Amino acid sequence: MTYCVAIKLNAGLVFLSDSRTNAGLDQISTFRKMIVYEKADDRFMVLLSAGNLSISQSVREILQVERLKEGDDDEEGITIWNAKSMFDAARVLGSAIRKVYDRDAASLKQSGVDFNVSLIFGGQIQGEGMRLFQVYSAGNFIEATPETPYFQVGESKYGKPVLDRVITPTTPLDEAAKCALVSMDSTLKSNLSVGLPLDMVIYDVNTFHTDKVVCIDENNPYFKMLHSSWGQKLREVFDSIEDPAWDGHETEVPLIVDSARSLPLKKIRTPDERLI
């Protein structure tokens, strides 16, 4: 299992992935789930992957040479390096997935293995704005919107609540990076199949390159501080909330109140007693 998250903001893009791969309880390996494609002053793209490791590695390898031809007259074809838009680059990625499917899906099925890969692909190509896509095993994809400015793949449920509460398109990049790390920390806390080190890339809009690339391990001072502070602050907030009071006279926020829509649950007594 793995966890990857990517966030699209007005100010730029945030990408974060773990690196743990499990093939059993006693066989844990480290493989990076992120790859960066950069052509100075022209394009910047990042690919995050989850699912079957052999499939995702094959897709990544083929993507760098894949050519999507629009017709017989299209000798050169579209690649991620000459695509005029991120949409076309995502189409090339989808084509690479389908090529791996055609090659490996039948033999995988015979071995009882599903063709399972989930990808996030985002970046910016000169001449258009930033774009972010989630790509599925069939090679089809959806695009991030202002209403849904982030995507997750892998073990997503533990890190989703903080993203939903914090992230909007206007969130500053550094704040979004912090939120992504809190999301990852929550996932690390709740699922042992997600693990350090982490890869993080921050991209500022219209720059077509970045120096904000970091590998985060257990000794990283910022992540250690964030892990400790987040746990402590959560506990402080939890302790600051009043405990439920069953006697409404003791509190201004009683738990037991009459509802206009629903009646309280009835208890079932033993056969020799009446229902109440």
Structure description:
By secondary structure, this protein is α+β, with helices and mostly antiparallel strands. It has a single domain (about 5-235), classed as Aminohydrolase, N-terminal nucleophile (Ntn) domain (Glutamine Phosphoribosylpyrophosphate, subunit 1, domain 1), CATH 3.60.20.10. Helix content is about 30%, strand content about 25%. It has five helices and twelve strands. The protein has helices at about 55-65, 85-110, 160-165, 175-190, 220-240; strands at about 5-10, 10-15, 20, 30, 35-40, 45-50, 115-125, 130-135, 140-145, 150-155, 200-205, 210-215. It has a five-stranded antiparallel beta sheet, covered by helices on one side. β1 (about 5-10) and β2 (about 10-15) form a beta hairpin. The longest helix has 25 residues, at about 85-110. The radius of gyration is 24 Å and the shape is globular. It starts with a strand and ends in a 36-residue tail after the last helix. About 35% of the residues are buried.
